[in-house]
Amino acid sequence: MPSLQEKIGEDIKDAMRKKEEVRLGTLRMLKSDLQYEMTKTGATSLPDDAVMRLMRTAIKKRVDAKEQFEKGDRPELAAKEAAEIVILEAYLPANISEDVVRKKVEEVIAEMKPQGPQDLGKVMGKVMAAFKGQNVDGTTVNKIVKSLLGG
User: Fold this and answer.
1) Residue 18: CB atoms within 10 Å
2) Which of 12, 14, 74, 125 is deepest in the core (most CB within 10 A)?
């Protein structure tokens, strides 16, 4: 099975053949981000979890940009960002449900016995580490941890 990075390279070629401009531009930008990361770390390729991390960052940037375009009454640019988000999300595994996240947070809290809201960072770190390599939304985790710690 090809790595995620190899799949992106193949999909760029496919998008060129099919003349899918938005998809091609989105994947080229992602490939640029991947190559920058490889240059920065001196690696010749990136493991799939690093690629997914970079994708999540790219998605987050696009979500923020989409919100700004909507606030600025620029629906055409917001629609472009939304299309790019869909393209990138297709490479990530399905989001982990809120119920599964809540159970894991409850387990971590029972194990760590935090003092209160001041231990939010410690609990968050342990929960996020438990979901490493999986598609979990950090905002959702933060919201659940805060509610269970009374913050």
Assistant:
1) 10
2) 12
Tokens of 146: 């805060």
pLDDT tens digits, residue range 27-81? 999 999 999 999 999 999 999 888 988 998 999 999 999 999 999 999 999 999 9
Please check whether residue 79 is in contact with residue 35, taking contact to mean a CB–CB distance below 8 angstroms: no
Instruction: Report the distance separating Cα 148 and Cα 105, nearest Å.
Output: 8
Share above pLDDT 70 across residues of the chain, in percent, rounded to a whole number: 99
DSSP state of 91: T
Q: What are phi and psi of 17, to 5 degrees?
A: -60, -40
Q: What is the DSSP letter of 133?
A: T
142: nearest Cα among 115, 126, 120, 117: 120
Domains and CATH numbers, the chain: 4-89 (1.10.1510.10), 98-149 (1.10.10.410)
Please tell me the predicted confidence (pLDDT) of residue 22. 95
pTM of the entire structure?
0.73
